[in-house]
Specification:
single chain; three-stranded antiparallel beta sheet; alpha+beta
Length: about 300
């Protein structure tokens, strides 16, 4: 019997388990080679399946439900977007002690885009703004209204207030806690989104952008996909851009002051969460989140 799909401790995921899941549930791909992809991020274990597909298994409950969400919505959004996004081809079921749904998608060529590729590039900033503009304008025939699909509803900044203030206190010896608090207070007090709800990526930052031959090629990891206030997607301006390219990005996207201020808040709270969780053990995360916090303070 399949395992129950409920949040649990991190499951053990090895090559033998992935092979068994694929071969049992999708025997048409049983002859294709599997090769683990590293690094794959904190949410999924990824294997390349043959030359044209990727197998993604959530490694923590925070990614629960992503496979089904992407399978439902990404094929409808993809034709309207100027950069490639994952194209799901199948959803696997819990089995053999593995507790959650998992995904098979088309393989996307490219490497994770670096700050070096993006930071001072006005062209990349304009391209990212164009992607978000196109995403926000998507209106599938059966586009849900805000709140009708719980998996497309994200919490607001206020939900993160306690944790963010605790993180600010924790990093007070490293960063200017007074300045951090001022940015956070401004974000919480900024007017909310006053327009009709739009699609947002929900985790739009450097780690979820791919580049090929020095140019942006794809946007990945739509686990945070939702409908509502797009301020969370402003985070990318602080993870991968300089002040000059941020100006290009904001102008091209036509961001109002309130949305930008809330976006700074999203950049700050997500960076603080990652910094306090991983910076002591992962130098790469420490460098990335230090940059993001610093850029959010610049504005």
């Amino acid at each position: 019997m399949p395992a129950t799909e409920t949040p649990d401790s991190r499951p053990e995921i090895d090559a033998a388990l992935v092979r068994r899941l694929v071969d049992t549930q999708f025997p048409q791909w049983a002859e294709l080679p599997l090769e683990r992809v590293d690094p794959a991020g904190s949410d999924h274990v990824i294997h390349r399946l043959g030359e044209e597909m990727a197998v993604r298994l959530p490694r923590q409950a925070g990614a629960l439900g992503q496979a089904r969400k992407e399978f439902a919505w990404l094929p409808r959004l993809a034709p309207h977007l100027p950069l490639a996004i994952p194209v799901p081809v199948a959803v696997g079921e819990p089995e053999f002690g593995y507790p959650w749904a998992w995904a098979v998608s088309r393989w996307l060529d490219g490497d994770v885009a670096t700050v070096g590729v993006l930071a001072d590039s006005s062209a990349a900033a304009a391209e990212l703004a164009g992607f978000l503009t196109a995403l926000q304008r998507c209106t599938p025939d059966d586009m849900p209204t805000e709140g009708t699909h719980p998996d497309l509803t994200a919490g607001g900044l206020a939900d993160r207030d306690h944790a963010t203030r605790a993180a600010i206190a924790e990093v007070a010896g490293t960063f200017d806690s007074t300045a951090l608090t001022a940015v956070w207070d401004a974000a919480l007090n900024a007017p909310g989104w006053q327009r009709p709800p739009v699609w947002f990526h929900g985790d739009f930052h450097t780690g979820n952008l791919l580049a090929l031959d020095g140019r942006l090629s794809a946007v990945i990891d739509f686990g945070g996909l939702g409908i509502g206030d797009p301020a969370c997607d402003m985070t990318v301006a602080f993870t991968s851009m300089s002040a000059a390219s941020r100006d290009v990005f904001g102008s091209a996207l036509g961001v109002d002051d309130a949305t930008w201020t809330r976006g700074r808040g999203w950049a700050l709270t997500t960076a603080l969460n990652a910094y306090t969780s991983y910076a002591d053990t992962d130098p790469r995360v420490a460098a990335q989140t230090t940059r993001q916090i610093t850029e959010a303070l610049i504005g």
